[in-house]
Amino acid sequence: MARICSLGSSLQDIYLVDHDDLVSSDSVYDRITVGTKVDIDKISYEVGGGATNAAVTFVRHGHESVILSNVGRDIAAEAIRACLDDEGIDSSYIETVRENTGCSVILLDSKSGERTILTHRGASARFDNLSEKCLDNISPDWLYVTSLRGDMTTLKRFFKYAKKNDIRVMFNPGKLELEHKSDLTKLLEYVDVLLVNKREAAQIVPGETLEELLSRLKNYLRTVIITDGQMGAIARDGSKTYRFGLYEDLKVKDTTGAGDAFGSGFLAHFAAGYSFKDSLVFASANSTSVVSKLGAKTGILTGREKLHQMVMQEIK
């Protein structure tokens, strides 16, 4: 197994779940009047954030999992550390900063699985205090990076250091990184695996179809995965290209963490020595399992499950 370091956000997720007051339409507040009280059917306190979600996938798969992130000095931070400790994740490199720990309030319609997320980034709004030199002590085989809120300077520091020290990098950029197109494309030379969805890919390179987007992104790096929701995904490892759909068409309960589950699921399997194709299957299965449960971590798989085959076409 490998040693994998996850770099990104750590948040407390507070779920407010209801079956008839939150309506899926143009506005989640369709039946909520401002200034009134609304009875919510269920509340659930979870731990979220891209770094913690990925770290849990890695450790459940049997890897040594380390997390680099920021939290505040509050009860939410204690809950995050307790969750990571329970999973067996090394949280000793999490920094404590003056800001409050980030928090997301998730308004979830239990009928449709649709949700609106209200987020206060808090300690996860910044990453410039984190030092890439701590990778010397961590000694990871892989660095898995989610959004750093558009901090391209910190990303470049970590990516260049990883390249210099033979640490492989998988990158799942966020909205704010994509706003820095020029800087982002320059960073891709340090990245071994890039994961984006179709809309995000179209912000980096021109193209309308998955095939067009992949064809252009492969000019920047060897391994690219582009997802497209219910339409499946396309992926290339430098020599082979695969087009595939959903692992299973299950009822979606909560889409929070779906992207994290796919990306970390791929790397967890791939770093364990499985083939590129098998790792894509596990990524799809992990994401499918996560969205069928409440919260970003409940459905995370261990890699020991017996998976069924899925339709996957090799594109010549």
Order of helices and strands: EEEHEEHEEEHEHEHHEHHEEEHHE
Number of domains: 1
**How much is the average pLDDT?**
94
Shape: globular
Return residue spans where pLDDT drops below 50 for at least 5 consecutive residues.
none
CATH names the topology as: UDP-N-acetylmuramoyl-L-alanine:D-glutamate ligase
- Estimated helix fraction: 25-40%
CATH architecture: 3-Layer(aba) Sandwich
Largest sheet: 9 strands, mixed
Oligomer kind: single chain
End-to-end Cα distance:
32 Å
Strand line-up across the major sheet: 4-1-9-10-11-12-13-14-15
- How many extended strands? 15
Give structural notes.
The chain has a single domain, classed as Ribokinase (UDP-N-acetylmuramoyl-L-alanine:D-glutamate ligase, 3-Layer(aba) Sandwich), CATH 3.40.1190. The strands form 3 sheets. The protein has a 9-stranded mixed beta sheet with strand order 4-1-9-10-11-12-13-14-15, sandwiched between helices. It has a 4-stranded mixed beta sheet with strand order 3-2-7-8. The protein is α/β, with parallel strands linked by helices and 316 residues long. It is built from 10 helices and 15 strands.
Summarize the structure.
This protein has 316 residues and is α/β, with parallel strands linked by helices. It has helices at residues 50-60, 75-87, 135-138, 152-164, 175-178, 181-187, 198-204, 210-217, 258-271, 276-291, and strands spanning 3-7, 11-18, 42-48, 64-68, 70-71, 95-96, 102-109, 115-120, 142-145, 168-171, 193-197, 223-227, 233-236, 241-244, 312-315.
